[in-house]
Amino acid sequence: MGEAVSRWALLFLVVAGMLVVGAQRTGYAAEQTVVVGIKDSLITPPNVTIEPGTRVMWAGERHVEREVYTITFPDGQRVLDAVSYASLFNLDRGKLVARIEAAGGRAALSFTKPGTYTYTVEPSSPTATGVIVVQTRK
User: What is the pTM of this model?
Assistant: First the structure.
């Protein structure tokens, strides 16, 4: 029994050490996630203010299969330069674009640089617009 406890303690220390090294490397102790829901013509919430190191996840909240939402940042390279992680986003003719299923699809970006980043979601009528504001920690 003592050997099993020692193994678990060693595993815990190794994992804790990896987390500390990861936090030191990125400069952020823990990544927070903000979820932005997309349903019909609505983005909820449409405007998000976050600190550097926060992940924003867009989530399709409609129960219609085979429908796709397109999330587009028109200044794609600037946004791509401001993130440390991008899930399902691709640079397409200067725009940063993700396509997610309306029924449960997910895409995410982890922002590291302060700034204001505007995006649109289609299809919606009128085109839904959202804003991500990344503010420097105080």
Answer: 0.76
